Predict the structure.
Amino acid sequence: MNQRMRPPLEHLAGQATLTVEQTAQVLGLGRTAAYDAARRGEFPTRRLGRRLVVPVPALLDWLGWH
């Protein structure tokens, strides 16, 4: 079985934001499912112009990771 590797959460701590695609990898979701979840407000996002980004500190809080 071929599983995608998820990046460890420790590597996220040094970044300010992630793309929705990167967040999908962290959460083990597909791209479409991640955009659907973002649209429904199921994880924290911010709009920067036309880009939708996920603030890493808010994502780590949402995940309960300290």
Notes: The chain is about 40% helix and 15% strand. The first strand starts at residue 17 and ends at 19. The chain has a mean pLDDT of 88. Strands lie at 17-19, 46-48, 51-55.
